Queue: 3 jobs
Job 1
Amino acid sequence: MASNPPAPEAPFKPSDTFAYGAGRTDEGPFEEWNPTADSLRPVRGRHRVSKQRGGGLARSSTVLGVGVIAAVGAGGMASAQTGKPPVSISVPDLPNVGSLLSEEETPQGSSTPLSSIGMTTADTEQGAADAGEALRARIMAQVEQQQDQAETKAAAEAVAAAEKQAADAAAKAEKEARAKAEAAKKKAEEEAAKKAEAERLAELAKQYALPTSSYTLSSTFGQAGAYWSSGYHTGLDFAAPTGTLLKAVHTGTITSAGYDGSYGYKTVLTLDDGTELWYAHQSSISVSVGQKVNTGDVIGRVGATGNVTGAHLHLEVHPGGSTSGIDPLAWLQGKGLSV
């Protein structure tokens, strides 16, 4: 294969200008290259350069153009913020970048201007001039929306709290009213019961009478002392002058009348319900066994017979004829009598 002899070296001369596509004077000397089949055969194992396709240069120019525009836009924004005038920059397209990328890997260019990125139709209609103003408008709208939601929530919570407070107050008032009504009802029932009991006792008082008059209570039931053989007093003592009349407390029958040791002269009046009334220390007895008497009938007189220290009536009450007695004062009061 024929080859051309090397060209003579040219003296180096620097150039002050550079034009795209023009030859450079600082390079050389060059040797002419005639390709052969062997030199064109691809080398096994080495990376292949993808085939340059139509439009690659345009696509690469678009990609780089977008990047340059972004850089220029950023520079312009910075210049606007610092107050310096913008600088005009002109960058030519690079023709061989597209040959390094395959058709599948070549990014598609965007015709959307940088200043309108992120803007919606609504933003455009509202007069937003660029993406920053649109973003600011959107942020302010979100802030206002969140503030409205917070205010709505706070208002709802306040209304709920007020309703709860009102419900609690109503429930409390209802509870107090119900308590007052129940207390008033209970008081009315108690008063009615007291009135009924007073009426009952008044009716009983018409049927019962005190055993004597002009008296003084000298000893009460259960009182302890050495005067009584049991160690305590078993009845109620009505101190009165000797000869004071003794009366039947209620209608009944005389079941015992006579002298009974430490009791002296004693009369036993048995009522219709079986309760026995013992009249002791009498000076005289005016009734006999088996005699029927009515309330207020005279059955004897006050005396000082038996184990005594002075004239008085010793009265005992034995329900159902039991040997142990109960408090005569409480029994008489239960019959409506004021002792």
Note: Residues 154 and 160 are 10 Å apart (CA to CA).
Job 2
Amino acid sequence: MRLFGLTVLTMIAFAANSVLNRMGLAQAGLDPVLFGTVRLMAGAAMLALLSFILRGGVPLGGRGRLIGVLSLSLYVFGFSMAYTALDAGIGALVLFGMVQVTMFAGALWLGERVPAIRWAGALVAFAGLVWLLWPGGGVTLPFIQAGMMVLAGIGWGIYSLNGRGAGDALQATAANFVLAVPIALILLLAKGMGGANMAGLLLAVLSGAVTSGLGYALWYAILPMLGATRAAVAQLTVPVIAIAGGVLFLGEVPSLAFLMATTVVLAGVALSSLAR
């Protein structure tokens, strides 16, 4: 029961990232690059603190560090820019679907054996994403922002693939966040501060320190107890929770076409995740 409760709490934290980003950008009007930068800085501070307390430090070197830092940066800023226009639930679904597609493609690229049922699941999930993103397919999405979320999903998928070889997941994630901060500051200086307000900045800090920093740390703590299959299936709930959060906190009402596309994507991901 304790493991179940911790898993539910972690999935809520993941979905809350979508809701908090959408609130910070659409309601508080914070600049997306500023939001992403503050989120990275708050996450880096929280993860570094946890690493010092639990592991005694944050080693910044290591195999695959450059890929980890760049893919994390792509995810964070693609995520923030996408939520200037996408609803929380739609954004979470596009992100989650693209993560699965990217990791599937990565497995093929690395020469891993892919069972037939996982092929079927990937094709079903991809078909649902095509339905969702196709112009005139029943769901109207802003092209640029949808594209940014696709890039964010690719970034997080690469980040996840790269992180499989990390010796200590908490330290590796802390190092990636810390090293991504200078990239974020360069982007912010190049673009300009944009609109800044206390409400938006607090939402960015909350997203970075709590739902990203603590959320990721909790996830790494329970992953060994969940196992790969249950962990993958648990993440199926993230878009659904994000849709509910969008309805409750942002007044977003999903269309029937979007709910149908959501069902197709999640069914495909479930097939892939449950493949033995």
Note: Residues 2-274 form one domain.
Job 3
Amino acid sequence: MKIATFNINGIKARLPRLLEWLEETQPDVACLQEIKSQDDGFPASEFEKIGYQALWHGQKSFNGVAVLAKQGLTMEERQRGLPGDESDDQARYLEVEVDGVVIANLYLPNGNPHPGPKFDYKLAWMERLRARMAALWAQEKPTIVLGDFNVIPQDKDVWSPPAMADDALMQPESRDAYARLLGDGWTDAIDTLNPRGGVWTFWDYQRGAWQRDHGFRIDHCLLSPELADRLQAAGVDKHARGREKASDHAPVWVEIA
């Protein structure tokens, strides 16, 4: 099974690029973030035309997550929205089960400007995520938690640590919260297969970042032990970032035996 994550940065604006990537790479499951679409505006019929079913959790103009799975696979929704704070109405989490694999798709808060209430919200969200991941762990099912984590885990995951030193993505608190997830026993698939780092998943639209390869890694795939033992390959479809009207993220994927 090939499972991918892609922060699409506006599903309507990037729909031609998204359909193009899906048809070229044929993931079994594709988790999308930052769809920026209300539920009734989600273009599900466009995905049906190329053989994908969809579940989505939308929000007007901001956030929003969706999961696409090939037709013929069994997909059921398990959880809409991250538990732990009933006042949080941001569309950032959608959990499904596809053919026996639990898939948690997330768009973690950015946290800028730091310090401030947005950074506090980010850290609180990460605490809630850890609690949810502990609950998933306890179920002992093959599980993957993936998406845009908005965390640069280590200095090896960014083109220039000094350039990002003041950003919420690289603050010690953000990194520590991410490290605690790994400490709980989850496997970072890309890092496991690329221990020296130097793998980017995001290049800003500003300052010629793409042309100069000034990127960093914030899109992650975390595997439970039941899936980590079955990891065959993982990678980044970097070419997708270089196309016209592309997202500022590239798709990230894992292949599971």
Note: The helical segments are 15-25, 44-48, 117-138, 172-183, 189-193, 225-228.
